[in-house]
């Protein structure tokens, strides 16, 4: 290879290296954002589970009140 070809190849490789550095930075940022999203989703799931638990307890209490007041039909 001539010196000119080597110089062109070196410039191309430098650009590729620069692009790869940008890609690495972007992937790192995406990992952080994905972790934050997963943590947020986990919090939402836990909150939903807690709400469902409270609703189940309230439903049981209402059923018990209905039975005590003879408001339940056919049972």
Notes on the structure:
By secondary structure, the chain is mainly alpha-helical. The chain contains 1 helix and no strands. The chain has one helix spanning 3-68. The chain is rod-shaped and about 100 Å long. The mean pLDDT is 94.
Write the layout of secondary structure elements.
Elements: H1 3-68
In brief:
With 75 residues, the protein is mainly alpha-helical. It has one helix at 3-68.
Features:
1 helix, mainly alpha, about 80 residues, rod-shaped, single chain
On the 0 to 100 scale, the average pLDDT is 94
Element-by-element helix/strand order = H
What is the straight-line distance between the termini? Answer: 94 Å
Number of separate strands: 0
Helix content: over 70%
Rg estimate, integer Å: 31 Å
Question: Which residues sit in consecutive blocks of at least 5 with pLDDT less than 50?
Answer: none
Give a quick account of the main beta sheet: strands, pairing sense, barrel closure.
none
Query: What is the approximate shape?
Result: rod-shaped
Name the beta content range: under 5%
Judged by helices, strands and strand pairing, the structural class is: mainly alpha
Oligomer class: single chain
- The number of helical segments is 1
């Amino acid at each position: 290879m001539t010196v000119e070809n080597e110089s062109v190849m070196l410039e191309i490789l430098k650009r590729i290296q620069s692009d790869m550095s940008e890609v690495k930075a972007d992937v790192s940022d995406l990992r952080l954002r994905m972790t934050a999203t997963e943590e947020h989703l986990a919090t939402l799931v836990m909150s939903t589970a807690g709400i469902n638990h409270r609703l189940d307890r309230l439903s049981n209490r209402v059923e018990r009140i209905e039975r005590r007041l003879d408001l339940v039909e056919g049972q």
